[in-house]
Amino acid sequence: MAEExxxxxxxxxxxxxxxxxxxxxxxxxxxxxFTPKIDPRKKPxxxxxxxxxxxxxxxxxxxxxxxxxxxxxxxxRMRGEPTLWLPGTDHAGIATxxxxxxxxAKQGQTKEDIGREKFTKLxxxxxxxxxxxxRRQHQLLGASCDWTREKFxxxxxxxxxVRTAFVRLYNKGLIYRGERMINWCPRCQxxxxxxxxxxxxxxxxxxxxxxxxxxSKGFVTVATTRPETFLGDTAVAVNPQDERYKNLIGRSVxxxxxxxxxPIIADEAVDTSFGTGALKITPAHDPTDFEVAQxxxxxxxxxxxxxxTMNENAGPYQGLERxxxxxxxxxxxxxxxxxxxxxPYSHSVGHCGRCQTMIEPKVSLQWFVRTQPxxxxxxxxxxxxxxxxxxxxxxxxxxxxxxxxxxWCISRQLWWGHRIPVWYCQDxxxxxxxxxxxxxxxxxxxxxxxxxxxxxxxxxxxxxxxHSTLGWPEDTADLRYFYPGSxxxxxxxxxxxxVARMIMMGLEDTGEIPFHIVYLHGLIxxxxxxxxxxLRGNVTDPTEAISKYGVDALxxxxxxxxxxxxxxxxGKGKLESSRNFVNKLWNATRxxxxxxxxxxxxxxxxxxxxPRIEDRWIDSQLNRLIKSVTELMEEFRFGEAEQQIxxxxxSKFCDWYIEIAKIRLRPHPALSMAGEGFxxxxxxxxxxxxLEKSLRLLHPFMPFVxxxxxxxxxxxxxxxxxxxxxxxxxxxPVADDKAFAPEAERVMxxxxxxxxxxxxxxxxxKVKPSKWIEAQxxxxxxxxxxxxxxxxxxxxxxxxxxxxxxxxKRKTVKEKALVLVLKEAEVVLPLxxxxxxxxxxxxxxxxxxxxxxxxxxxxxxxxxxxxxxxAPAPVIEKQKQKLAMLEDKLKxxxxxxxxxxxxxxxx
Length: 907
Ligand SMILES: [Zn+2]
Ligand SMILES: [Zn+2]
Prior knowledge:
Layout: H1 2-5, H2 17-31, E1 45-48, H3 60-78, E2 83-86, E3 88-89, H4 93-106, H5 111-140, E4 151-152, H6 156-171, E5 175-185, E6 190-192, E7 197-213, E8 219-224, E9 235-238, E10 252-254, E11 261-266, E12 278-281, H7 287-296, H8 322-335, E13 339-352, E14 360-369, H9 372-383, E15 388-390, H10 394-403, E16 408-409, E17 411-412, E18 422-425, E19 431-433, E20 449-451, E21 455-456, H11 458-463, H12 465-468, H13 477-482, E22 485-491, H14 495-510, E23 515-521, E24 524-525, H15 542-549, H16 551-559, E25 568-569, H17 572-599, H18 613-634, H19 638-665, H20 684-698, H21 703-714, H22 742-764, E26 773-779, H23 783-788, H24 790-797, E27 799-806, E28 818-821, E29 825-829, H25 837-863, H26 865-870, H27 873-906
Parallel strand pairs: 1-2, 3-4, 9-11, 15-23, 22-23, 24-25, 26-27
Antiparallel strand pairs: 5-6, 5-14, 7-8, 7-10, 7-13, 9-12, 10-11, 14-16, 17-21, 18-19, 18-20, 26-29, 28-29
Helix pairs in contact: 2-21, 4-5, 9-10, 9-14, 15-16, 16-17, 17-19, 17-20, 17-21, 18-19, 18-20, 18-22, 19-20, 20-21, 22-24, 25-27
The structure holds zinc ion (2 copies).
One zinc ion binds at residues 425, 427-428, 430, 441, 443-444, 446.
């Protein structure tokens, strides 16, 4: 396609992102650039996309994830590594089911009304639509993932992996079914893992209830936030050390209203400072109480139905909803004078992460993974350095979590997800656990078997994602070549939900770590650092941002200056400045292409030219940039790498080199030939080389605009037939240390300083931009070099006549003049009538004071023994040089001052 449409057409004046984005994405797709070739001689780069839920529209979090991963994928691809970025989506069990249930509710229906089969079909349809949407959005962002390998957790492959992993764990005794305390959502009517529960601080009450002593007078008062649960109490516990209750241990109390006798027991876990120090024990509805009950062999009394209404064990309260029951219980206790007092009390209460209903801790028969052995191996993998977590500070959090890990409840009473591969026999009551659907009980051969109706926690399939997507449990070519992955990139908020479990299951299933690096990114906040929320109205919609600023600008704004694991701010300002950068790049390229066309001069190889100082300078700076960017990319500091490319392109290349090149390319009126006074050396080869490499450096960050500009440039280059067909497969630039030119840099630093400070003076004194002013430059070692740059200084600083002389030629300035004391030169601007001598004297004195302060600082440092013994030699040497430089500058400044006062005495 590029060959057909890309002629040497002038590139459009203004950059219109929408026009080029779709064109290039289609081109990349058609060429198959996103699909890696398996090459046993090369080490692949592999990254598996964190599963976006099929529920949501694209938000900035996805955009950030996709951008960071695309940066890595494109960079590694350009380095010649077979790069696999594997996309996929998650069925997101409960989240999806809740969404579809809500849609049904709008039509006045429940999932039970339409039945499991129809509900599942409906959810599939909805999920398909949603997945197409997610794919389109990723393509919009430029994600270079391999769509030919796209996976969905409910696909046949990953589903088989789920069943196989379950059976393996079951056979090893690492999966069991048992009655345990779980979090129950009464609305979703399913078990939830601890991680699916959101804790909120609630201002509630502490109720003091009297339990009358059995066979004796008096009461034992207990304090509780949930008075209705007394119906399920099976003991009162006190601390054995508590003097107040010592003689009551072993006795009993009678529960009010239902008149049930329960024992008073002693347990070390009772906190004597809470309430009265006597604790009611409701083992079926409280995790701590459940543990106490296990220790003392207390019975469990479940008082609630799955929908959190009271069941038959609640006696007279049966059928009441839990909060209505609480009101009734409180009224009844009050009537019997058994409610001693009520205190305000704030505490943390768990809520369903999906529907925000208050969860009910309850004992329930569920499937669990015994996580401790898995966690041990997963901890080892990070401890011994096989897996690195970036940023490092999350390593400790990971260890803490692994150390305190609890068994993982994996069964969910949902319809949407992987059915648990367990069949119960109606005849012998034993279970058959199998990856393939069995026809008979493996124990007695009966065909009266029924599959467990529950599904697995959605994170169970996510935990297998690194290997199930590559074909595990089959021994596939993909699995052999692409596993383990290189990087797992995701938000720090799902380190435990997902990353930790992938490490556990990857190790368990394959015996190998699932990836080498965990890269965690932060959250995106608004411009002022506030969390984005619809309520605050500060949400940036990525689709809107794309249509307004273009994908490249959005990607750049999202990632420039960001650091791993830290939150970052995004707002209009950042998006606008990113778009301005794209425009700057566009305009610079336009200028270079027009110059190429105008000169009818095909860019020659740089080596053929004796380069000028500024040519060697830009090349040196470019190579230093390449070196630095490569190091930063290797350290996963993408945000810093982008910042450096930005600074180079914007300032050094566009503001200085291109401006200088314009002077050189300007046709001389008399000779009508470019570059008069520059020895005929054209800057074009350096313009082209710097631009071409800058585009390649930028490509991973801004894929679309760089491809568009690179293709336009390529069409004008003599070597175009030898160049790759797309920038996406062009090699990432490699630094050439031989290009480093410290002496050219020294000269250009001085040129830039002279121009910049002259421009500042002109601005301060409001000199019209069109007005030429006279200037003399006095310098030492740089004399001959600066003379070669006279044309440049003259034009850029708008100074004429310009004289550049050695310092020894300096005479006392008689007329009113302004003197700039610079690092390696003094600039004398004889601005008659413009300068206020007194103000000038003050200015120089002030500057002198500042330099003195800096000298004192450096001097003290160089006398400090601790610094001298601890700092590396090059650092000390650098400080010494700095000091000498400053002392020299101060001396010259003093000379100027004394001249100024003597000339003022003259006049
Ligand atoms: Zn819920
Ligand atoms: Zn059987």
